Amino acid sequence: xxxxxxxxxxxxxxxxxxxxxxxxxxxxxxxxxxxxxxxxxxxxxxxxxxxxxxxxxxxxxxxxxxxxxxxxxxxxxxxxxxxxxxxxxxxxxxxxxxxxxxxxxxxxxxxxxxxxxxxxxxxxxxxxxxxxxxxxxxxxxxxxxxxxxxxxxxxxxxxxxxxxxxxxxxxxxxxxxxxxxxxxxxxxxxxxxxxxxxxxxxxxxxxxxxxxxxxxxxxxxxxxxxxxxxxxxxxxxxxxxxxxxxxxxxxxxxxxxxxxxxxxxxxxxxxxxxxxxxxxxxxxxxxxxxxxxxxxxxxxxxxxxxxxxxxxxxxxxxxxxxxxxxxxxxxxxxxxxxxxxxxxxxxxxxxxxxxxxxxxxxxxxxxxxxxxxxxxxxxxxxxxxxxxxxxxxxxxxxxxxxxxxxxxxxxxxxxxxxxxxxxxxxxxxxxxxxxxxxxxxxxxxxxxxxxxxxxxxxxxxxxxxxxxxxxxxxxxxxx
Length: 479
Description:
CATH architecture of the largest domain: 3-Layer(aba) Sandwich
Mean pLDDT: 88
Oligomer: single chain
């Protein structure tokens, strides 16, 4: 057999030139495809998987999706598949568990595909996108009242080490329901639709087994396990696999949403681990680093994931993303939360200070944001006073926080009567509105509680609310 080009069979090579960390450099490869999947044939019958990530005249760079330990340049063969990574898809995905590379780990047979789709996905034509406008009630007041989640939105949770992000995310998945219209003032009509048309896709990216088990148990206890698809890349799994996990998860979500008509909630945790894996690959490729060593194309790479959320005109389903990321040192200017905030439509930020006070959920509403909130609220979708109540809560709480800082400088004796009232409101807002424990609140309960908190002030102090709403909902301060 001619071994001068080390070509053994069609699309099979034995010309590995170097191994650097998770990367394999193969020489003299002809007509390789960017993103093409390869099989690395080890001595014996062992096969490891890889993906082409770079092409040049001299080298084809393969990202090995498993451990490179034990590989020898002289005894491995590389077989090219002539296709990019694809996923077998069918309705039978529901209730299944896979590893981060889409291989079943629940001891059930492989999925019999109704369709195969490439995991990088296809961009949604902007002209085909439907505007997200359906309010999703999460049962958490700080989200429903002030940072409303709508169907088709991408709304990440910015957490810090040790903060209860996973508990909040599990609570959202357990309680979420679609609320679309108002019949009478204060009466909400729920239009959740066919309960079998709701699905959850869970992507675990480099998290500990205990955290993954928490989510799986939460899904089972809440009765949603039979319409949940889980992709698990744990902390002791290959680091490089973390780059594939969210893509497999989002491919499954898009199929269920746009082919099967499901409303899909996608939870991806932890996106910081994903970015760390991206940095590891960039370092192995000896790329010029950007901020804090992360590659300069990380913004574009994250956008290819986050922008897969949304709705399509003429399709019944939707993909709503709730990514979770851990901010190193609680720093929102860190590249991962910073770039995520630019791409996504807002953020939910957890507060270590509130967590230390025993407040749950410890959501700091001031840095939080939902850019699509106005599209999902109002008379036809939630309640006519929703927007103005939210604005008034924000204004009074921000002024109360300013009064709290002033008190730390001049002391309680130096505060005016207005400052003391704002200080009282800030305390009530945190202990009564933010701190709701694990209980579920309807939107009407959230808005009713807001009006109760407004009793701290005379009606004329509520400058951000229309007089007709004050007349309808306001109650005189308790004496």
